[in-house]
Amino acid sequence: MPVTAPIAYLPLGDSITEITCWRSLLWSLLRNPPNLTDPFLPRTHNILVQPPPLPNIRFVGTMTTQAPGGCPNSDIYPRHHEGHSGIKAVDAADKNRLREWLAKAGKVDIVTIHLGTNDILYGLHDRVERDMESAVIAYDEILSELRRANPRVKVI
Fold this sequence. Notes:
- By secondary structure, the protein is α/β, with parallel strands linked by helices.
- The chain has helices at about 15-20, 20-30, 90-95, 95-105, 115-120, 130-150, and strands at about 5-15, 35, 50, 55-60, 80-85, 110-115, 155.
- The strands form 2 sheets. Strands 1, 4, 5, 6 and 7 form a 5-stranded parallel β-sheet that branches. The protein has a two-stranded antiparallel sheet with strand order 2-3.
């Protein structure tokens, strides 16, 4: 079997990315996928679905913080990410921040984006509509930058 390069995965976002434990839980599932029961088959014909072998996945990003209380498997999961507490989508798109983060991460194959919560939260006063419009424009800029760095990047 040929050896393939690891898949570079970038968790990108705000505090949901930076200080919650979903990254360690994802890592656990990637390393030890559960056998799944096919929900679309009748109980009498149900079979276990054996997950395919998982590729070598490498978490990338300039940050390595995690939940303040620690996370499951915190001693073994790769902590690299690009989660910045309080950041808005417009902040990530502005000032070439994303371009700098991508340059440091190298080629990124898969990205999850958890942005927009702070755009809504900070815009709840008198400018919600304008902030939401800005957030949508920022998402477009973020996607364009990701595609510029790697036209084949998968975005979740």
